[in-house]
Structures are given as C-alpha cells and as structure tokens.
Design a protein that fits this description.
- By secondary structure, the protein is mostly beta strands.
- It has one helix and 31 strands.
- Strands 1, 2, 4, 6, 8, 10, 12 and 13 form an eight-stranded mixed beta sheet that branches. An eight-stranded mixed beta sheet has the order 15-14-16-19-22-25-28-30, with no helix packed on it. A six-stranded parallel beta sheet has the order 17-20-23-26-29-31.
- It starts with a strand and ends with a helix.
C-alpha cells in the first residue's frame, strides 16, 4: 500500500502487508502475519492496531526511523523485527495514547544471545506514549586457558574460570600447553591472544565466536578446526602477529574487518559472501573457496 488514506479494516493472518505513509481510519489486526514499514522512512497511523489474537503473534517489521502511530494499541503478542539494530541504542518506533501495555508479550526477532532486549512504554512529552526498545549487551566473563590437565577445550580444569561459553571471553596467554583440541561444538564471546607465543587448534568440532578476535603480542594462532563467526566482526593483529584459519570460516557473519599490521590467512571454505575489508596488515586466501562466493 502506497501513500493513501483508507477506511478499510485489514487483518493480516499470514504473509506481509507493506505500507508507506498510509492512514487506516479504523483498525488493523496482525495475527500470524507481518505489518512491514521497512524501507524508506514511514509514517503509518490507524485508530486501533491489534497485534496477536491470543494464539498467534503479529510481527511489526521496521526500518530505523519508521514510526507506527495508533490511538489505541492492543498487544496480545508482538514480535518486533528491526534489522540492523545495534547494542547500546534506544529505538522509539511506536506512538500511542494507550497508557498500559503488557511488555512481556513483546519479543525481538532474531535476538542475539549476547544482548538483552527491553521494551518500555514512556510519556512522549506530547500527551501520548512512546513504545521504546533498549538493546544492552550482556556482561561476559573472562576464561584464561592453562591446559593444566590436557589439551581438551571442553575440560573445565584446563581453564581459569571454567570452560567459556557464548558469554565467555577466551584468553590465551603464556600457558605451557599451547595445543588445544576442539572435538565437539564449542563457543566463546571473543578470542584474545595476549602473549608472544604459538597456539595450535585442532579437532573436528566447530568453534563459534560471537565477538571479535584480538592479538596484543607478536605471536601466532593456527586453527585447523572449523571456525564460525557471527554478525559484524573485527580481527585485530599486531605487527609480527599471524592468525590462520585453515579449517575455513562459517556462520552468519555479515562482515569481517581485518585491522592492525599483522597477517590473517584464510584456508578451507568460507561460506559467507563478500564480507572482507582490510585497513592494515595483510589478508590472504589459500584457495578461491577461502574468499567466499561474493
């Protein structure tokens, strides 16, 4: 629906209703389908907007700057889809004169396990209320590798702080045992190499890294095991530092920025497309498949 004013009462039980600068004079109900404002900045208004019917939620898809205005807002189940939303930011996306909303019935689409998503209804200073989304990164914990018992990533005794998970920062310093085996799926919030040492990672398990990879001393780290990255990642390597991903790169990564004066070498197969950027040092690929198909 383009720029228009209509007195219809559409109901979206499946599929997507796309709107742009549209006024619905009466009521819009979204239960099982999607109301999409994403694209150009959109002002969308209706007298009454209902999300969900008690059994099915309705989805509201937005672009940054899009605003839905509803004199009366009823939330029985709402999923907010805001692609590109970033942590440490607040998004105001809905204006209403309704004074109370059960925000426990609102969720965020494709929520990252690294963030908390909080919805609040606050006065807008103009006699109405604004529904806002605050995205806050969760606080991670540090886990330092010692290899005191074995080379197995999954053994708690090989770490100070226990085995890292998706909120654990894995730190590799001057440990005596610098061979790490990953034989089953493992994860970490980030990887940090803090000593001028050589680390080797092997095994059949995939290591998923939800944050950035950093090296602060001129060491090396070689991954023969598969590595999966997510989101928008930075790999920062100092002068003399070298990182190799010979097991390939996978995951839903959108971009990888290579920074610092060190060298990053990628082998195996990269499943992501057109994700690479370089602002310093060297980035090399051992095969065409290592670059990805983009």
């Amino acid at each position: 629906v383009g720029t228009a004013t209509t007195h219809a009462k559409p109901r979206v039980d499946a599929g997507t209703l796309e709107v742009a600068a549209t006024t619905f004079g009466r009521e819009v109900t979204v239960a099982g389908g999607t109301l999409s404002l994403a694209g150009t900045t959109t002002a969308f208004s209706a007298e009454r907007v209902v999300f969900g019917d008690g059994t099915k939620s309705g989805t509201l898809r937005l672009g940054e700057g899009d605003v839905l205005s509803a004199d009366e807002l009823v939330v029985n189940g709402l999923v907010v889809d805001l692609p590109g939303a970033e942590p440490d930011k607040t998004y105001s996306f809905l204006s209403t004169r309704t004074t109370e909303i059960d925000t426990s019935k609102i969720s965020f689409a494709n929520a990252s396990p690294l963030n908390d998503y909080r919805f609040t209804l606050e006065p807008d200073g103009a006699g109405g209320f604004a529904l806002k989304l605050l995205i806050e990164p969760k606080t991670g914990s540090d886990h330092a590798w010692t290899g005191a018992e074995s080379s197995d990533w999954q053994v708690a005794g090989n770490w100070i702080g226990g085995v890292p998970g998706l909120l654990g920062n894995a730190i590799f310093g001057a440990a005596a045992n610098r061979t790490v085996r990953i034989d089953s799926a493992a994860s970490a919030a980030s990887l940090a190499f803090t000593a001028a040492t050589d680390y080797a990672f092997a095994g059949e398990g995939t290591l998923t890294v939800y944050g950035d990879v950093t090296m602060t001393a001129a060491g090396t780290a070689a991954f023969a095991t598969p590595v999966a990255l997510t989101g928008e990642r930075t790999i920062d390597l100092p002068d003399g530092g070298r990182l190799t991903f010979d097991g390939g790169l996978a995951g839903d990564v959108r971009s990888v920025a290579k920074t610092g004066s060190g060298e990053l070498s990628v082998g195996g197969e990269t499943t992501a497309d057109n994700v690479w950027s370089v602002t310093g040092g060297r980035l090399s690929f051992t095969t065409p498949e290592s670059f990805g198909s983009g």
